[in-house]
Amino acid sequence: MSKRPAPLAGIRVLDLTRVLAGPWCTQNLADLGAEVIKIERPGTGDDTRGWGPPYMKDAQGHETTEAAYYVSANRNKKSVALDIASSRGADVVRELARQCDVFVENFKVGGLRKYGLDYESIKAVNPAIIYCSITGFGQTGPYASRPGYDFMIQAMGGLMSITGERDDLPGGGPQKAGVAVADLMTGMYSTVAILAALYERRNSGLGQHIDMALLDCQVAMLANQNMNYMASGESPRRAGNAHQNLVPYQVFAAADGHLIVAVGNDSQFRAYCSVIGRPELAEDARFQKNSGRVVNREALIPILAEAMLTGKRDDWLARLEAAGVPAGPINTIEQVYQDPQVLARGLRLEVPHTSAGTLPTVASPLRLSDSPVQYRRAAPLLGEHTAEVLQQYLNLSEEEIKEFMK
């Protein structure tokens, strides 16, 4: 049981987002206790409802209509089916916005203005609203009107230039990440911005417009690679599974599989050399310091690779762990959920779902000791809460709601 109310209890969010970046943001807010009202197109809803297979299964193992993609980003929300292109639907959204703290949307720049749902229109009815716009390129600049999708943003924002095998090796060339990291990081940055704006509002009493762009977030998340470029004037290149600034920090083949070795400092390197039976390498002037190992990578790595082939993966992992050298297996996602640490942390949960009974979900990584994340419901059915929300916030009668929903 929670020791205190959820951190965002009492905060109401109007969610006009779809696909991933926006829903990822609003799912964070919902997990932290905000009431999130998701507005969806009647009949089809969020695009990702149809992004299957796979579809989630009910207790009898039968497929539901809920695509796994949609379920991954819409936990703890309420779904209201409204046609915002109709004057009546737009009126309802404005009335709901009047009673909300946060408005999140990911339409094209200016796309909501024709419905009277842009920031200036919503601010006119609720000056305290925190209005977050998520787009590919932001509200300004020569690309502002372009649509932006994660894949193209990973390319334009530099991530694919540093992801994948080296160009001079088999399989080399640009490679995207295995999940939509530009979308996900934009969702995370948007969450931070909204929380900051809510905190600031406690002093000013006023809302503000948050302008979030996938490209901005993608460039920002390049982190040390940005600074590698700025310090050297040279663009970092793809390094496969190696690290540009640490050696050895990569995949090694053992006699029966592969493992990661992630040496982060010189003392760990000395311990690693002892484990693999090559202690003299740690005394070699070329390799004693990480800076030397980075410069002399091509001389060192073949020696280490040869040594690693003499042992079995799990034997290496046990010995490296005992010596305090960071190392780990390369798990499939199935193996992830069998890992003792993942089991101990409870990363797979079952949450209530209206038609399936329960659905699996992945626990939020946000762990608060006294006001923890709450798992109230799985992703909602399309329009599941339309009547409830219209009655509660617009005080419509049952007859009015039936007429409205035709």
Offer a few descriptive terms.
single chain, 406 residues, alpha/beta, Rossmann fold, formyl-coa transferase, domain 3, 2 domains, six-stranded parallel β-sheet, three-stranded antiparallel β-sheet, 13 strands
Describe the protein's architecture and organization:
Helices cover 36% and strands 17% of the residues. The protein has a six-stranded parallel beta sheet, with helices on both faces. Strands 9-10-11 form a three-stranded antiparallel beta sheet, covered by helices on one side. It has helices spanning 21-31, 68-72, 87-98, 119-125, 150-156, 181-204, 214-220, 224-232, 266-275, 290-295, 297-308, 313-322, 333-336, 340-345, 386-394, 398-404, and strands spanning 12-16, 35-40, 55-57, 63-67, 77-81, 102-105, 130-135, 208-213, 249-254, 257-262, 327-329, 348-353, 357-362. It has two domains: 12-221 and 342-404, Crotonobetainyl-coa:carnitine coa-transferase, domain 1 (Rossmann fold, 3-Layer(aba) Sandwich); 249-330, formyl-coa transferase, domain 3 (2-Layer Sandwich), CATH 3.30.1540.10. Helix 6 crosses helix 7 (214-220). The protein is an alpha/beta fold and 406 residues long.
Write the layout of secondary structure elements.
Elements: E1 12-16, H1 21-31, E2 35-40, E3 55-57, E4 63-67, H2 68-72, E5 77-81, H3 87-98, E6 102-105, H4 119-125, E7 130-135, H5 150-156, H6 181-204, E8 208-213, H7 214-220, H8 224-232, E9 249-254, E10 257-262, H9 266-275, H10 290-295, H11 297-308, H12 313-322, E11 327-329, H13 333-336, H14 340-345, E12 348-353, E13 357-362, H15 386-394, H16 398-404
Helix pairs in contact: 1-6, 6-7
